[in-house]
């Protein structure tokens, strides 16, 4: 997207009362901004720029200034990387393993490897990337998603085995879902996040730390991501649970979970609503039903992803835009007091069924994720 098209996109989002965007800055093992850290590590064979050779993130921050749009860079890949990326090839000692010695894993992003979140070198690298963005850009926050985690079948590499034996005097159990083994690994990821938050606040105290995980049971047991514990420890400033369900009943089942109800009493809480994939568009009526259900329950809404809002959709663009305008007809107002230092985010409009709407704390932004096409060769 060139400068003019990006400006047009921002104008459309502002007019539709969006109040936050989450642009991808870490994807497929590459920093999607000029990164001295990535260059130092020798993992960045290109300098990402816009069509006019500009720093896209810097330009995005400038274009949204004063428009009521929070800019929260999204470190999408977290501890994950493609096996053919320079990062994975150069730092094979950073990779963790399954019990059979395998290092690859197949998920929504295809075949990937996982950086070992328990190694200090990996933690330092990711921390430095985040702090680089925090220092270089006038952003409102940073976001990690379900990839600030580790699939539970990993952690059987020599380094992690030795660390576990040193701390527990036990050998990691063969069952990757063993409760003690699961908790030990999850606690290590929690400790990393606590250190990261402390480091961010030391640089810019007002930066928001947003997390967009999967529903809790799957996140914790399947990916060692104890996001409810993070919320309870005060490590997270905003929670956006990815509830990409194919129908309304399964969507409702997740957004009514007690852990979501608990979280929204303390921090801005929202749900991720899938507006379509490049090969799987989502019909507008289902999107409307999900948005209404979320807002009736005092939850913010974040759409994934920008192109599928109206460009890659079943309905004409103007039909989709009109529907979104109707969903978010309220003007932008401050979100207080939870994030009083971050101005201009919206409060959802009242709904017709007040019995379903408790008096909630300030809500998560109604925003849009902006993914990218991975760089060539990734």
From TrEMBL:
Chain spans, region Disordered: 348-378
GO molecular-function term, one example from the UniProt record: hydrolase activity
Key words of the record: Hydrolase, Signal
Superkingdom, taxonomy of origin: Bacteria
SUPFAM superfamilies: (Trans)glycosidases
Matches recorded under Pfam families: GHL10
Signal is among the record's keywords: yes
Glycosyl hydrolase-like domain boundaries: 2-290
PANTHER family in the cross-refs: GLYCOSYL HYDROLASE DIGH
Protein name: Putative glycoside hydrolase
Naturally occurring in which organism (per UniProt): Microcystis panniformis FACHB-1757
């Amino acid at each position: 997207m060139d400068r003019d098209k990006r400006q047009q996109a921002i104008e459309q989002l502002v007019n539709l009362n969006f109040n936050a965007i989450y642009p991808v800055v870490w994807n497929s093992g590459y920093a999607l901004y000029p990164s001295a850290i990535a260059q130092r590590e020798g993992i960045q064979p290109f300098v990402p720029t816009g069509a006019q050779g500009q720093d896209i993130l810097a330009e995005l921050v400038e274009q949204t200034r004063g428009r009521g749009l929070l800019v929260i860079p999204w470190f999408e890949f977290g501890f994950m990387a493609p096996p053919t990326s320079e990062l994975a090839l150069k730092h094979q000692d950073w990779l963790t393993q399954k019990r059979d010695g395998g290092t690859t894993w197949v998920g929504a992003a295809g075949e990937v490897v996982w950086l070992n979140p328990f190694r200090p070198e990996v933690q330092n690298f990711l921390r430095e990337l985040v702090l680089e963005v925090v220092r270089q850009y006038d952003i409102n926050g940073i976001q990690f998603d379900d990839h600030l985690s580790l699939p539970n079948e990993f952690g059987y590499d020599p380094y992690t085995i030795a660390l576990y034996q040193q701390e527990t005097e036990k050998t990691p159990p063969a069952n990757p879902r063993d409760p003690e083994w699961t908790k030990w690994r999850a606690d290590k990821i929690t400790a990393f996040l606590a250190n990261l938050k402390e480091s961010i606040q030391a640089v810019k105290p007002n930066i928001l730390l947003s997390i967009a995980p999967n529903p809790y049971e799957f996140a914790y047991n399947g990916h060692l991501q104890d996001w409810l514990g993070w919320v309870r420890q005060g490590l997270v400033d905003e929670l956006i649970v990815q509830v990409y369900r194919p129908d309304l009943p399964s969507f409702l089942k997740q957004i009514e979970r007690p852990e979501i109800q608990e979280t929204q009493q303390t921090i801005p809480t929202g749900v991720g609503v899938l507006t379509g994939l490049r090969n799987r568009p989502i019909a507008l009526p289902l999107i409307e039903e999900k948005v209404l259900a979320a807002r009736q329950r005092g939850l913010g809404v974040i759409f994934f992803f920008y192109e599928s809002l109206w460009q890659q959709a079943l309905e004409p663009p103007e039909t989709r835009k009109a529907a979104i305008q109707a969903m978010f007809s309220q003007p932008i107002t401050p979100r207080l007091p939870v994030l009083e230092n971050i101005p201009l985010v919206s409060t959802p409009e009242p709904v017709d069924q007040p019995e379903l709407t408790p008096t909630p704390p300030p809500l998560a932004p109604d925003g849009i994720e902006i993914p990218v096409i991975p760089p060539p060769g990734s």
